[in-house]
Design brief:
about 475 residues, single chain, two-stranded antiparallel ribbon, mainly alpha, two-stranded antiparallel sheet
Length: about 475
């Protein structure tokens, strides 16, 4: 009934695990930097509201960080189990890059995470702030190495092929490949925006339930300022990233735009809506704006880009999928900008914390940062197909020689286990977010003359792990 191959199942399995995984590092990156800002503001101003918010979000950061580590380990193993052809071919590039991530970012995070999580009353203020800063820097270093590896797969350079294996010849070119700077900045900003939307949604949730405190107001205010400043910057970075992709991966851009062919000297229209048909090589129900595609992609009235028909059918990415995944990402980005501008208008009127419709919109916008990240990654990775290393190695040559039944069983197990384990974890995160922000003047972290608290990862939270526990804080 369904024409599914082992390659299709291997791709689906990797897409499933990486989609789960990317949620947690994105929030970890943003929350780590947010915690640095909160602790820095507390040290500078002495206002307890920043310390209270630090302890509130530190609990959420700790649980999120743990789930990110676990999901990342599972994903990494698939390079050996499902993509042994790729590992054998390009492991001399991707292996060292991932090793550098462990030696720099992971060790840095692991070295200071314990002090950050449990050392508030055990070390001096300066050392604790330094630990928080090192963890935040570690998350950004980790992002750098991961994006360097993935960007090399998109725009490979600095290598030669000998005996069917990639041999690095210039590590500087390998790391700083043509798409790397744009993708690093784009992804980092996306993580900050996703976190700001989560923080803003938490603040809106509390305000809608009449939990109007200085900490909650500060939470919402900081999140909205982030949207006001960073969301427009992301749109500009995205434009530069698109121009870079047009230069190095023109087939991807043609698929994203649903652009099949040029007509004489006529400019490229922007297809707002349509259903790209890969077999019939056209868009159904297309709604177009003449010349706007040329203005966006070439910054000229009649500029043209290669159409999908200029590429062999075997070399075309699936326009049916990435046409819409790209529009989901861009559409949500526009809503983020509008939400930021709306908050700025309400702030000037003094109604930022009382406008019910705005608060509801901020609440519902909470997950859109994550959705936009996923849509962007779908666009990037599916748009690279049919290549696993663009122009060098096809995905079909990278997959391990497994039969369909074994991949189907393992995929089913992944789905069951992931939804169970990470479903509980995500549910626990929501429980933490729903709890009120409490005063952190006397955190019970043990020490001489204090009640002893076991130093387990989940003991960083005050909430019971039981799904039936009350939502009120146990200390109250």
């Amino acid at each position: 009934m369904f024409d599914i191959s082992a390659l299709d199942l291997a791709r689906v399995q990797f897409a499933f695990t990486v989609s789960f995984h990317i949620i947690f590092p994105a929030i970890t990156i943003g929350l780590a930097s947010y915690l640095v800002v909160l602790e820095g503001m507390w040290l500078k101003t002495g206002e307890s509201v920043y310390k209270d918010l630090y302890h509130y979000w530190l609990k959420i950061f700790g649980v999120n960080f743990g789930m990110g580590v676990v999901s990342g380990l599972v994903m990494a193993y698939q390079f050996g189990t499902n993509w042994s052809g790729f590992s054998a071919f390009a492991g001399s590039v991707t292996g060292p890059l991932l090793t550098y991530e462990v030696l720099t970012a992971f060790f840095l995070e692991a070295g200071f995470l314990g002090v950050m999580m449990f050392g508030w009353s055990r070390v001096g203020r300066g050392l604790h702030f330094f630990s928080t800063l090192m963890v935040a820097i570690g998350t950004l270093i980790s992002t750098t190495w991961i994006l360097a590896s993935n960007s090399w797969m998109q725009t490979p350079q600095g290598f030669e092929i000998a005996d069917g294996v990639v041999i690095p010849t210039d590590w500087w070119q390998v790391i700083f490949n043509p798409s790397f700077p744009y993708r690093l900045v784009h992804m980092s900003i996306a993580a900050f925006l996703a976190t700001a939307l989560l923080v803003g949604a938490a603040g809106a949730w509390h305000l809608l339930r009449k939990n109007d405190t200085p900490a909650v107001r500060t939470m919402l205010s900081m999140a909205m300022w982030m949207l006001v400043v960073v969301a427009p910057v992301q749109a500009i970075v995205g434009d530069f990233h698109g121009l870079n992709t047009l230069k190095h991966q023109p087939a991807k851009i043609a698929a994203v735009e649903g652009h099949w062919e040029n007509h004489g000297d006529e400019g490229v229209p922007l297809v707002l809506f349509g259903l790209p048909d890969m077999e019939q090589e056209k868009n159904h129900y297309a709604l177009e704006i003449p010349h706007l595609g040329s203005l966006i992609l070439t910054h000229s009235w009649n500029g043209q880009i290669p159409g999908l028909k200029e590429f062999a059918p075997a070399d075309r990415p699936n326009a049916t999928i990435i046409f819409w995944s790209f529009r989901v990402m861009v559409g949500l980005g526009m809503f983020m900008i509008l939400l930021g501008l709306w908050s700025l208008w309400l702030r000037k009127q003094g109604r930022l914390y009382q406008q019910q419709l705005f608060l509801r919109c901020a609440l519902w916008m909470g997950p859109t940062g994550i959705i936009a990240i996923l849509a962007g990654w779908f666009t990037t990775e599916i748009g690279r197909q049919p290549w696993v290393v663009y122009g060098i190695m096809r995905t079909a040559d990278a997959v391990s020689k497994h039969d369909i039944s074994s991949l189907a069983v393992s995929l089913a197990l992944f789905i069951v286990v992931y939804f169970f384990v990470f479903g509980i974890g995500i549910g626990y995160l929501f429980r933490l977010i729903r709890q009120p922000v409490i005063k952190a003047d006397h955190p019970q972290e043990g020490g001489p003359g204090q009640s002893k608290q076991p130093m387990r990862p989940l003991s960083a939270t005050d909430a019971s792990f039981s799904l039936e526990a009350p939502l009120s804080n146990p200390k109250e």
